[in-house]
């Protein structure tokens, strides 16, 4: 447009321009009485009036129907309808719209939904939806995001991944996510991202109408996602939206935020699980150590109970007890014999056999002396045998050789001789007054000839 700068221009107010447009549209004979075919979307009732949109594959038209609550009760989103009315202008918003007088339902299935079902059936017959799903990595290191760089979807994905799992690297592959440009840019972005050796891809877009999301229902986009070698998560629209690309994805998330959450683990949850695992391991380790400690103490008690010193002590106590019992029995026997002697002496006195009593008394004294000598002999012999047993038991004491300057060599806790040792072995040498740790430099057995070597 060219302006004539030598002529004073006419300046219009916004309301004046809007009024002119209103006059032009509302006086056009073709727009005074029109029938518009399309699919109903965003149907809303406010008071007695209905506000909605008619749409097809190329455009949308805002509509209003006064008194619709009585004339169009059963209209719903997705209905394919014929709307009768006139084109007018709502001046406050500078918006043209259809003032609808009557609505006729052609089909309860919208045109876009019909196309959606037709393409879905076509792709199903081709086996596109039957491809086995790839495994989503649990701990990805590099993730590619295919969406618009200026979208809220990308900001949400970046925020969620950075918070949940900041160890991951995020690569953005910018693309349009609606309109005709998206049909070219989305497949191109998917193909480029697939060559980057990434662990995972996320194809995402925020919510919108079925027209806004339609690019993700196009065959070229679906087949581009189908041909990916990298695992793919989709997060397109809201939870109620399902596009055809979701059927070929390896995992479908309800939203871009949901896709980000599904792509990476929560590092705080991992820390919590790791803490629980470590506590469980520590608890089991402590229980195991306590059990081993109980077993060691039990084995030690058994070892002490069966050691030569304990056996000697037990035998000594038994011998001492037997000796005391023998002595007590002997003393009891002497006491009884003495009583018998006195009793017989009294009897003999009473019968006048004094000489015979003296003779028997002398014999009895001799017998008693013999018994005392026998007792002393038995006691002396028992003491000698006890001393001999003690000497033999002391000779068997494991530490006795150590008192004579010998030493015990242990390897890994076991007693070993020279034939069980090798150069470099670490050993413990036990002496009577302590232990020493050493490393074997060379081993010489009795069959070898010493050459002034030392261990």
Q: Keywords for this structure?
A:
OB fold (Dihydrolipoamide Acetyltransferase, E2P), 13 helices, rod-shaped, 20% strand, alpha/beta, five-stranded parallel β-sheet, 4 domains, Rossmann fold
Descriptive report:
This protein is α/β, with parallel strands linked by helices. The chain folds into four domains: 14-109, Nucleic acid-binding proteins (OB fold (Dihydrolipoamide Acetyltransferase, E2P)), CATH 2.40.50; 132-265, Hypothetical protein af1403, domain 2 (Rossmann fold, 3-Layer(aba) Sandwich); 308-397; 399-455, no CATH class. Helices cover 47% and strands 20% of the residues. It contains 13 helices and 14 strands. The protein has helices at residues 14-26, 29-32, 68-71, 111-125, 152-164, 180-194, 219-226, 244-248, 256-263, 267-305, 308-350, 354-395, 400-403, and strands at residues 34-46, 49-55, 60-65, 80-90, 95-107, 142-147, 169-174, 200-205, 232-236, 251-252, 408-411, 414-415, 426-431, 434-439. Strands 1-2-3-5-4 form a five-stranded mixed β-barrel. It has a five-stranded parallel beta sheet with strand order 7-6-8-9-10. It has a four-stranded antiparallel beta sheet with strand order 12-11-13-14, with no helix packed on it. Helix 5 packs parallel to helix 9 (256-263), helix 6 (180-194) runs parallel beside helix 7 (219-226) and helix 11 (308-350) runs antiparallel to helix 12. The chain is rod-shaped. The chain starts with 13 loop residues before the first helix and ends in a 16-residue tail after the last strand.
Fold blueprint:
Elements: H1 14-26, H2 29-32, E1 34-46, E2 49-55, E3 60-65, H3 68-71, E4 80-90, E5 95-107, H4 111-125, E6 142-147, H5 152-164, E7 169-174, H6 180-194, E8 200-205, H7 219-226, E9 232-236, H8 244-248, E10 251-252, H9 256-263, H10 267-305, H11 308-350, H12 354-395, H13 400-403, E11 408-411, E12 414-415, E13 426-431, E14 434-439
Parallel strand pairs: 3-5, 6-7, 6-8, 8-9, 9-10
Antiparallel strand pairs: 1-2, 1-4, 2-3, 4-5, 11-12, 11-13, 13-14
Helix pairs in contact: 5-9, 6-7, 11-12
